[in-house]
């Protein structure tokens, strides 16, 4: 009898049989094992794992920090936290110091201004007086005060009246000493007013 060979096939495991029941997994397996000029995806077990030939790869032992390094790192972190706290305190101190300096400078400026105002009031003979009129003239009796200031004011008022009379005389002279064309009255002869003399205590030129 001739030897007859049969095509044997490796039996599937239980996981493979269960996987064939899952449609998505079955499609992934068929895509991974398909033939032809198709792109075949390489199976990646862990997408987040780092390849050994990658510069960021670290061995499991290197991932952990030793006791001395942990103490140094913690000390550095505490020093940084302390430095931040001190910088915050220093910033607040500088702000309060500047605000206090500005407040004292404003108080000093206010005090100096008040002192200058008092000095100015004391130096001015007009300021600071009470129950004193603004002019040396009695508004009740219509009389000038018997003081040099009153005599000066009287002379000033007399000069105002003198200039008014002098102006009326000049207008009459320019009207040729005739009659008033508006009222028709006869103009009286011109009388030159006398110039008032200044008081003896002051020398005033009118």
From TrEMBL:
Residues 1-48 are annotated as: Disordered. It comes from the Eukaryota. Residues 12-32 have a biased composition (Basic and acidic residues). This is Uncharacterized protein.
């Amino acid at each position: 009898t001739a030897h007859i060979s049969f095509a044997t096939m490796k039996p599937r495991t239980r996981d493979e049989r269960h996987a064939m029941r899952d449609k998505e997994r079955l499609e992934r397996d068929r895509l991974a094992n398909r033939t032809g000029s198709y792109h075949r995806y390489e199976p990646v077990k862990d997408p987040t794992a780092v390849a050994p030939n990658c510069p960021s790869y670290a061995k499991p032992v290197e991932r952990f920090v030793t006791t001395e390094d942990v103490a140094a790192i913690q000390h550095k972190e505490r020093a940084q936290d302390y430095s931040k706290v001190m910088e915050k305190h220093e910033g607040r101190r500088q702000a309060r110091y500047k605000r206090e300096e500005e407040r004292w400078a404003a108080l000093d400026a206010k005090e100096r201004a008040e002192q200058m105002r008092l000095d100015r009031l004391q130096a001015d003979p007009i300021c600071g007086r009470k129950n004193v009129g603004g002019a040396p003239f009695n508004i009740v009796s219509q009389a000038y005060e018997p003081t040099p200031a009153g005599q000066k004011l009287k002379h000033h008022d007399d000069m105002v009246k003198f200039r008014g009379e002098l102006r009326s005389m000049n207008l009459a002279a320019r009207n040729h000493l005739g009659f008033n064309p508006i009222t028709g009255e006869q103009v009286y002869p011109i009388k030159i007013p006398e110039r008032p003399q200044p008081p003896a205590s002051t020398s005033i030129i009118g």
